[in-house]
Design brief:
It is built from 13 helices and 16 strands. It is an alpha/beta fold.
């Protein structure tokens, strides 16, 4: 079997654009992958096209060799653009292999540790502005079946926060905790926006609401800075979405800078690379909670990974998504009691509707982290991406 061609798709997703890739073979098998990033979409598509040209004529069953060779041949070897493209291509190769063998991708990764994965909701807060808005939407997310909720309550903060901004953040978290009660996990997202003393102060101020973790409290460049926060934070520290190489995750572990690792299977170079990162964490008995706030194919990729790693703890999912998500990709997901069952279809278990993708072309979206509009991540009419059963 040989790869005969590839296609890429940029699909508007309101917050960013989904980036899909499809590989075709002379045996009729097709493989899907996703390489979605925020705000570098066209650069990723160009990287996918370079990798696609290399793959034409190659045997998709030589997955690890092909991924290693593409990594070597890139010369620069790293960065979110290249490694996200590599992740999408690896997923498409594994999807082809799984379909050809009639097995789910998790069988190609060593088999399942579990049949269902616990998950928490992100994106449930879309459109919220006030503490009352967040509280109301948090109740709605719990009614959808989620037992864990994540969000960024830091407004337009960057590095410093004045007393009024700190109090607004505390008010929002307090309102959500009061709305959902003591048994719902709360994950506090920061998007790497605070300096060290501000992050420590906010961790201490929010600890009374018993969050499960404090995520990416400082910018990602300095792991030493993150270690300083962890050493002084009463809340567990989670991070990983803006690291790409195993060496950086190794540094996080060795410098005792993190409690929960969050590699993104769509950014680190693929499922096989994410397994290596999880193995390093497991050697220190650290849990892995994969970063997963993007599209349907990447969600399928992450579910297959989550099935296979012994130190998996919880999966990020988007509680609501653009209404055309169901048009562009057919997913077969069972969601109940804040858990998703691992799909058992061959490959990733997805089908892409190319015509639907073309009906929602690329739209340039602004960065919302610093203008106070971070909660405006989904349009009116957004729908739950899974159906409660």
């Amino acid at each position: 079997m040989k790869i005969t061609g590839y296609k890429t798709f940029l699909v508007d997703a309101h917050r960013t654009n989904f980036i899909f890739v499809k590989l075709m073979t002379d045996a009729g098998h097709e493989g899907l992958g996703e390489s979605t990033v925020e705000w570098n979409e066209k650069a990723v598509v160009a990287a996918l096209e370079e990798l696609g040209e290399f793959l034409i004529g190659k045997d998709p069953f030589a997955t690890d060799f092909l991924v290693s060779t593409m990594h070597r041949n890139s010369y620069w070897r790293t960065g979110v653009v290249f490694r996200s493209a590599l992740s999408g291509m690896e997923a498409a190769l594994l999807d082809i292999k799984g379909k050809a063998l009639g097995v789910p991708v998790y069988e190609l990764l060593g088999g399942k540790h579990r049949d269902v994965v616990p998950c928490y909701g992100n994106g449930w807060f879309s459109g919220a502005k006030t503490a009352e808005d967040f509280a109301r939407k948090a109740k709605e997310a719990v009614q959808m079946g989620f037992r864990g909720l994540k969000w960024d309550p830091f407004g337009a903060a960057y590095l410093e926060m004045d007393r009024a901004a700190r109090n607004r953040t505390i008010e929002v978290v307090e309102a959500v905790r009061a709305a959902v009660g003591p048994d719902i996990d709360l994950m506090i997202e920061v998007h790497g926006r605070l300096n060290v003393p501000t992050a420590i102060a906010m961790a201490r101020a929010l600890a009374k609401f018993e969050p499960r973790w404090f995520e990416e409290p400082v910018p990602p460049e300095s792991i030493d800075a993150l270690a300083d926060v962890r050493a002084n934070s009463p809340i567990a520290i989670a991070t990983g979405e803006r690291y790409f190489e195993p060496e950086r995750f190794m540094e996080l572990i060795y410098k005792r800078a993190v409690d929960i690792l969050q590699p993104d299977v769509g950014h680190v170079g693929g499922m096989l690379e994410a397994q290596k990162i999880a193995a390093m964490a497991h050697a220190r008995f650290l849990p892995v909670a994969p970063h997963n706030p993007t599209g349907p194919v990447m969600n399928a990729m992450t579910l297959q990974l989550a099935a296979t790693i012994p130190n998996f703890c919880i999966l990020e999912t988007i509680a609501v998504d653009v209404p055309w998500r169901r048009e562009i990709v057919r997913e077969s997901l069972e969601f109940s009691n804040s858990e998703i069952r691992i799909p058992n279809q061959p490959g990733l278990g997805l089908e892409l509707n190319e015509e639907a993708c073309l009906r929602h072309p690329f739209v340039r979206h602004p960065i919302r982290q610093f203008d106070g509009n971070l909660t405006m991540i989904k349009p009116e009419g957004s729908v739950p991406f899974v159906t409660k059963r």
